[in-house]
Amino acid sequence: MSPFKDLSQSTPKAALFNLAPLPMDTDGIAADFQRYYAHTLGRDRDCKSAYYPYKALAIVLRDRLMERWKRTRQAHDEANCKRTYYLSLEFLMGRSLSNAMLNLGVTDEVRQALYDLGVVYEELESAEMDAGLGNGGLGRLAACFLDSCATLQLPVKGYGLRYEYGMFRQLIDDGRQLEEPDHWLRDGNPWELERPEYTQRIPFGGRSEMYTDDAGRMHHRWVDTHDVLAVPYDIPIPGYRNQTINTLRLWSAAATDEFDLGEFNAGSYPESVAAKNSAEHITMVLYPNDASENGKELRLRQQFFLACASLKDVMREWIRLHGRDFSGFADKNCFQLNDTHPAVSVPELMRQLMDEQRLDWDEAWAITTKTMAYTNHTLLPEALERWPVRLFEQLLPRVLEIIYEINARFLSEVAARWPGDQERQRRMSLIEEGGEPQVRMAYLAIVGSFSVNGVAALHSELLKQGLFRDWYELWPGKFNNKTNGVTPRRWLAMCNPGLRDLLDEAIDPRWVNDLKHLEALAPKADDAEFRARWDAIKRDNKQRLADLVSATCRVDFPLDFMFDVQVKRIHEYKRQLLNILHVIHLYTRIKRGDTDVGAPRCVLIGGKAAPGYEMAKLIIKLTNNVAKVVNADPEVSEFLRVAFVPDYRVSIMEVLAPGTDLSEQVSTAGKEASGTGNMKFMMNGAVTIGTLDGANIEIREQVGDENFFLFGHTAEEVEEMRRRYDPNAIINNDPALLEVMGLLEAGHFNQFEGGILDPIIQGIRSPHDPWLTAADFDSYRRAQLLAAETYHDRDRWLRMSVLNTAHSGYFSSDRTIGEYNDDIWHLDPVAPLPAS
Ligand code: 26W
Predict the structure, then answer these.
(1) Are 169 and 359 in contact (CB under 8 A)?
(2) Burial 662-680 (b: 16+ CB within 10 A, else e)
(3) Is 591 noted as a catalytic residue in this protein?
(4) Rounded to an integer, what distance in angstroms lies between the CA atom of residue 481 and that of residue 816?
(5) Which residues line ligand 1 (CB under 6 A)?
(6) pLDDT for 1
(7) Residue 596: pLDDT band with limits 50, 70, 90
(8) pTM above 0.90?
């Protein structure tokens, strides 16, 4: 029998829930830790694993989150407040332990308690697996946003998928990437709370039919479906020291009993039990592609599964609090779509309102278009989602009918506005005609939303002028910009304790909640004593970075070298290749005895390649091959070291950002929507070398031209240049680049691997190279030289470093979320009820 049916005969007294608040002091925490470690987990002195002390501490903190969590939920219910739901296929949460300690305000107490018990905190911290339920920027942004919403006490709930396997683990073998599954839930997840009582049924397949109800009204229904259960798991999202705990609800797929047994006859019992698998496969694994869609059926299943389960969950809550009157629904609910991945929510909300709640089309459409808001995260055409109509027909027949109806009504609006403009109707249709008709998910998201935003100023402008031009002409008021941000809790207070302590002492300690206070650092850049302390902290952080590189790459990074870091997904547009070409250039100079290259430097590159992206994988191989040659040459390694850090992820960035001197943000202008790693580095006092792309532009505006190493063509110049791009002429006219290409072409970095780098060489030399790598080489080389010379001038560099942190306040995700709330969500903050 199902454990969540209401079968209990007992009626618990209020006393059951009347608990004294848990102690937050060292002794109280130590006592609980001991009890969980010895009694709950049953460990004794023979246990040598760091995992169990981690788990015991996680339970200690979870208890303390739990009591505040309930009070937050009750406060939201009682306030009858408007709420926002952040719908995302990815939440890249990383580790939760230190973040829970920091936000609960018990970091010192926990450390003291563990110290008293002889437990080393750092060991226990590293026993936690990263929750890697995302690819990169978009998924980590969702995680930063949840932190800010809780800190601002906004009633925002995240909805996502509980993938059994997160982002693959990257191993490097002979310089090449190998992928290994990330079974992150293997040892259990102390941060989640299963909520089987809120399970939802998700339909797939079947067909759509019409019927007449008792009142003689016609309706549609979706029948003969194969249903899958969606079981929610809740994760607490603590605000910073404010008693608020918001919720991230992740859905896990499970088979219904009838799914396997009803479908098949008694003769095929094993097959029918096996069919259970196909239901559970839906949330088995995160798709590891960022920036190229692959059109797999399972991915569309994931998208609908998230949309349908989340919308049903919101409906259930609405009906619990307001009954079946939907007239106030749009005033109290908002759905923020994280890219087009959950865009099937538009027709699915229509379906639930019409087919399940019996609203008519106009009522349902008014609600949908007043509640949906869409964020775009990329301009790359290959990343724009399109689903074959045929797939929709098989998997979601009733949803497809609704998409057709939305399209028909929309196109008649276009026809009315631009009579006779057939070409425009064809361009704007939600259905792309051609060999295989496709549903254009971005257009579906725009039609169904009242707000469409990009993630940095340039990106939002380019959307209006390019990709969404027709749409901007039709509905200019829908379009807006929300420049990304990152949470200063994780990305400064938690990952950089040295700097945190200095800031607490030097400026208003409320900086953690209001990052604008960092501005007060600016005058201190001129204070020599302050700079010396800044230098000492950076040095400690460089030591931590060097320890990580030594342990994972077997390369030594001397602390007095400039630490030059580029970490992000490997993609041609991000131009890790440009970075490597520059490394090769430095190598050629040093080899020739021309060692006047400014400060010696350690170049670190890290990031995962999508498993099917051969060029990205080759760039990893090239990096490792160059590293091998450079590091093995004693003449060179006096001035230059190179390493590729394997399995780049959130917990690695927590070590890299604080220890970095120079932040590489070198994408082809117009291609990187925003970037968020750039902000993490800046906050931690790194200076950026970058193009005028994404949020780099705003970073430079904030910090000032003189504290930023700018290079490269602008987005406009890039578009202009494409038509007459001649990389071979550029190479022939640039002795430095010619020499680099010469070494590559001579096989200097693939001596016993003949020809393997040819695709890279051909790419650089191709007049059709979309990333214009050769075009930016010379200005990149000059900017790098200036950076290295500047680094030599310790005072100058430290001043720049301080000013970068000082002017990074704008890039707090608290500012970003404040803008989402002011312009799109319009939520009132709600404080949790006081502890009884
Ligand atoms: C359909 C496959 C797919 C999967 C993920 C296509 C596209 C994506 C994302 C849009 C990729 C992504 O993470 N984009 C990044 O989003 C960040 C947060 O806004 C930005 O800072 C980055 O510039 C952008 O590349």
Answers:
(1) no
(2) bbbbbbbbbbbbbbbbbbb
(3) no
(4) 10
(5) 135-138, 141, 289-291, 293, 339, 377-378, 383, 385, 455, 484, 672-676, 694
(6) 41
(7) confident
(8) yes
